[in-house]
Amino acid sequence: MVPRWLKRLLHQATISDQSYRFMFEAGPPDEVVALDCETTGLNPRIDDIVAIAAVKLRGRRILASEHFKAIARPAAEMAPAAIKVHRLRKVDVEHGRRLYHVLPDFLHFIAGRPLVGYYLDFDVRMIDKHLLGFAGIELPNPLIEVSKLYYERKYGDAPPGTAVDLSFKAILKDLGLPALEQHDALSDALMTAMMYLMLRDLKQRDVRIPRPRSSSVLVPIGG
């Protein structure tokens, strides 16, 4: 697999649409963007995005009024299991724009800012397969994974065999954060933004999240 830093260099040199060269310019030094996507399923090769949302953070503040949200009409069929998760039916997305019409506005919103997300690699892969088609690039933005930050704060010094729970609910609970309507793209982006700010603060203060004294089952859960 080609490393992201090398892909960035290659795409910067070979970008087919010069109007997107701004994506390779660093954003404001104190800003990041929390991102979330809802999809027709969990296979990046055949599934598609049905909702995409992002919210800006500046310093210690979540700029809730500066958000991006769009419903996209997918080319792929909606999997029943996916509908149960995000509750978006075919009728709910059939009047949305195709993702290649959504992406230009999305790219101008995020620009070159680092992206924050929960299992962010999946969302980025779903975006990249469309972005390659019309701009000749993949997202060059630095990526910040909140489940990794959480793991470091809670399990980074754990002994072998410690039970690990990286679920969204577990992170919210440990950080004492409110649970908004989950699996709504904008709500998930806002909750992810809150997670990031708290985990970043814990890291800066070198504070760890307490663990139960004894555990016996390994539970690497996502979602």
Structure commentary:
The chain has 223 residues and is an alpha/beta fold. It has one domain: 2-Layer Sandwich (Nucleotidyltransferase, domain 5), CATH 3.30.420. The chain is 39% helix and 16% strand. The chain has 8 helices and 5 strands, in the order αβββαααβαβααα. The protein has helices spanning 4-14, 80-86, 90-93, 99-110, 120-135, 146-155, 168-175, 185-204, and strands at 31-39, 49-58, 61-71, 115-117, 143-145. The protein has a 5-stranded mixed sheet with strand order 3-2-1-4-5, sandwiched between helices. The longest helix has 20 residues, at 185-204. It is globular and about 50 Å long. The two termini are 25 Å apart. 34% of the residues are buried. Residues 215-223 have low confidence and may be disordered.
